[in-house]
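Let's practice the habit of predicting before peeking. Look at the sequence and jot down your guess about where helices and strands might fall. Then scroll down.
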Amino acid sequence: MSERTEAMSEAEDDVTEAVAQAVQSALPGADVNVVPDAGGFVVRVVSEHFASLPEADRRARFQEHMTPRIASQVHTWELLTESEAAWYGDLTTAVTPPPAWATALDRVEGEKATSAQITFASDLDQDLDSAPVVTFYSLKGGVGRSTALVAVARRLTSEHGLRVLCIDMDLEAPGLDTLFGISQDSQSDLGVVTALLAYEFGEDPSILDHVVPVDDNGRLFCMPAGRIDSTYAARLRSLEPEIWYRERVNALHRLIDDTRDSTLRPDVVLIDSRTGVSPVAAPLLFDVSDMAVVCFHPHSQARNGTELLTGALLNSTTRRQAPLPLTPEPRFVVSPMPPGQSAPRLADRAKSWIDNWLEPFNDARHGAPVLTAEEITHVVSYNAEVSFSDTVTSDSIRLAPYARIADWVLQIVPEPAPKRGLQNKTSESKAAALAQLTFSTGTAEELDGEQFLQDYVVTRQVSETADPETPLILGRKGTGKTALFRWLAAGKLPGWTPVCVTTPSFRDRPDWSFGPENYDAIDQHLAMSGQDWGTFWQILIALAVHRTEDAADNAGAPHSAMQNLEPGDFAATQAVLNVLQDPMGALRCVDWLRKVDANGKNQLLLLFDGLDTAFGNTPVQRRRRSHAIAGLLAKQADLASKFSRVRLKIFVRQDIWSSLRFENKSHFYGLSRRLQWEDKREYFKVVLKRAVHAPAFQDILRTADPSLVETDVASWTPEQVDMAWSSLVGERMRGERTAFTSNWVWNRLADGNGDHSPRSLLQLFAAALDWEREEEKRSTYDRSVMRPRGLALSLERVSEPALSALLDEEFQELRAVADALKDYGRTPIGEDALRAALGITPEDLITLAREAGLITLNNETDDAARAFRVPDLYRWALGVTRRGPM
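Done guessing? Here is the structure:
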């Protein structure tokens, strides 16, 4: 026991002994109970001596026996007869003191951080058993707290179809009904104050009599504080929040429970709390609220008080105890943010404060996602129209700034039961699905051919980019270039015979698909002979067509040097060099190809992939690659007019294409397509195609929609994709800024340019599947095969390979930028800080990092103070936290 705890215990013993002696001296035989409570003590004395005394005279019987020091520490006296005591709860059974400011803040001052586990409603896989309570609170007024509540309520009803009850607990300065545009009934005294008083006096009010509908669609309701008249102040003074937790019936609990159990049945209860350290605010924040939305302006006056409040919240547990004690979940709204250049600085200041407040509590999260300001903070800019408006309407433009707060609330609102899918399935169905599911995470080069073709999804994008009349396919590494190449190389495009001229590093790579040493030999010969790369490509194309089965229709060899070649790349390279030495060699090859085009029975699709890595990665090799690819593209433009049944399809990495300089580059305007996942549902088909290979998952989908297993995934409608996705991994995330798994995955797996890699998607689901199999052993989950929480906990395992692919396979020169971001440790990073870390000539590296998607511009409103953000896809691997400059 600490010295401080020992001192407190001794003080409690002293008060208890002194009070007991004083009472026994005046009232022998009285029953005395002394209980620590809210920074002081509650004393209950039960004696029949009080029967003949009015309440005002009862304390006088033993007051003279109390010293002033002891009397000052007792804030509540309960002086009762035995019959009166029967109406009160048992004071001695109180395990914890009631939720009062003194108690909550004392815990913060004494412990600084809790050692108990901090679990939020949004951490749970299962839904809450009743409508969540969200309290909007601020230490000071004028920060838009009530406006935010009304805007969120309207958005939850209009955008998400929820039934929302708003309760005005700002009893000293009510006005929620005015913001909703509700006209006060001058004859009615119904509302929060009247209802609470009725509960205090043991009555059983009809709670719906105190509720007013706000709209005509039956989804938005308000419980006003009450009618403001000459009696309101007297009724308000009659409320005694401090005794709610010592009576058999807790008036506040009854108020909330009765609204939940009424025919109103709200999906969520939003409470507007009084500002400051008011008696009513404490139980709202520290006991009944599942989430506390704390509004403040980042002025130094608000810093200390909001820090203490944060600690008090995170040291509290709510009245919900199942399946385990829950902590009120803090969310922060920085408001109103003034316009101008200071806004980003003020927002970063607020987030830095919040990160510092949260840091001591992250160890108590015990495996749950750590608390970061970026995830639980939202900035609302100043809006004069909103500030000076008497009401908050359903205007979507005015509600838009509060969308993120509404998403926070959605995270903890119980989901409706699934219409179809797992609801009629047993736990064995899910267990079988978990055992059968697999998500291959290898690259397109690594996957077995049969498995690859089985898993490949022919999306709309594939159909468009596979068009033989589109010669140039562009895309980032991992966006599906090689997968499309493999599909075409397997002969899946009807009517076309594929010829693989250059390929990635497959196990069955053809002899004429060269590597760095081969291209080095070719380059040396071209330099000495004065020939260009276009000449080389004419020869290599002829060799590839000649050596590909069923491509040339027994047309003989294009050149004598290509007859009867020995297997291996050496012989192929030697043949090309021999043809290059023949002054007529390249012309012979083109003439041969023209004859094949005219006389052959097949249409030939000449495929070129693997060019990004085939030349090597040294500066000299990269320059060689640029010259070679430029020569290939120039030759394509030349050959296109010569052939009618032969087409070239060239796969080039986007950044390589951007850096190329050659004549007639404009020829490819309109003849190129970029592989970029622009439709998230098309993207999700990649993982769903793998999932439907599991018979048990097919069985689950068959219950949801029989057509899902009767049609190919590629032809699924958006609605069918959504249904299958929800069956696999659920509809909503918890504990993140967005409420939907589809949005979360789409946003988290995007690089700085918004590009998405199917490989990262499969890696995420493979990691989440491993996690789910272990978690299912500890606790079951029946809303989807995989619980959404597994995605959030698996993102870190995707980040490292994504960064490695970027730096090792594409942009080795960006390692300096990655190192600078690691050293800085936060995102966003100011441009000046990044320049200083990179050294003398950072501009090219910063530009390349943006083009590669490693960073993206965070704020374009102030060019003098630009900052760059690291996307979540790379943030974990770089070890940077979401926190702005200090």
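How did you do? The first helix runs from residue 3 to 26.
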